[in-house]
Amino acid sequence: MQNDPMGQAALDYMGGKRGLSIRVRSNIAEDDQIPVDYLFRTFNEMPEIEQKALMHCKGKVLDIGAGVGCHALYLQQKGLEVDCLDTSAGCKEAALQKGIKSYYQVDFYKFDTNIKYDTLLLMMNGIGLAGTLKNLDHFLQTLKKHLKPGGQILLDSSDLRYLFIDEDSYMMVPMENYYGEVIYTMKYKNHKTKPFPWLFIDPALLEEKAIENGFEFKKIIDGPHYDYLAQLILK
Question: What Cα–Cα distance (Å) separates residue 74 from each residue in 28, 54, 196?
């Protein structure tokens, strides 16, 4: 449970505490707060992008970066077989208390299984696990290993170009790195992560990278603010 801000916050919430939030700090914007009750949202409380993603899930599903399992719980209730995957011990404990049936607490890159999935679900900008644009090819190839032929990846992301074109949030475009590469830290009480890289990617570049790595690309829906839901189908 050391340095597990999201997991500890989830367990406090399960213990009846309310009004909690997780502080998020990045190298591109002011500090933000994640309300802990948002981690436990129901289907009706989810943004349209997440609802659409869940409606497109089929077969055996691996929910990568599952957190407390709000997406997986909905899919379970719809009769789908779902495995959750996350590194947080606290989130796993909270998810199991909520009724999640299968949860792997392990780093995605160390997830070793012979199971092949019909759907890989990566919500809340789950493609951010790639970390950097340079590592995206490796990330996509690792995802491929867990897919059945014809299987799909459902993911959402955002095009951060608005940070450089909106008057209210104007910034200089970085010269050395892709503008969607962000460094985050998260803190809750005395739990704090080390700085970690997180990737946001524009849909045109994602389509290019998906095709290069053997996927068909389809953008399912645009969100209200430069965000979108994409489907990558293994050829």
Answer: 33, 8, 29
> Taking a C-beta distance cutoff of 8 angstroms, is the pair 24, 34 a contact?
yes
> pTM of the predicted model, to two decimals?
0.94
> Cα 212 vs. chain centroid, distance in angstroms?
22
Q: 2: exposed, middle or buried (C-beta count within 10 Å: 0-12, 13-18, 19+)?
A: exposed
Higher model confidence: residue 194 or residue 177?
Answer: 194
Q: Please name the amino acid found at residue 225.
A: H
Q: How many CA atoms lie within 13 A of 115 on its CB side?
A: 15
Contacts with 79 (C-beta within 8 Å, 6 or more apart), sequence order: none
Helix (H) or strand (E) holding 6: helix 5-14
What is the CATH code for 5-234? 3.40.50.150
Write phi, then psi, for 228 (nearest 5 degrees): -160, 160
Q: Are 189 and 158 in contact (CB under 8 A)?
A: no
Instruction: Please give the Cα distance from 97 to 148 (Å, whole number).
Output: 30
For the chain, the domains span: 5-234
Question: For residues 102 and 83, is the Cβ–Cβ distance under 8 A?
Answer: yes
Distance CA 226, CA 168 (A): 15
* Owner of token pair 């104007």: 170
Residue 140 half-sphere exposure toward CB, CA atoms < 13 A:
25
Nearest alpha carbon to residue 209 among 161, 108, 160, 140: 140
Residue 166: pLDDT band (50, 70, 90) is: low
The residue with tokens 């990846």 is 153
H or E segment to which residue 165 belongs: helix 162-165
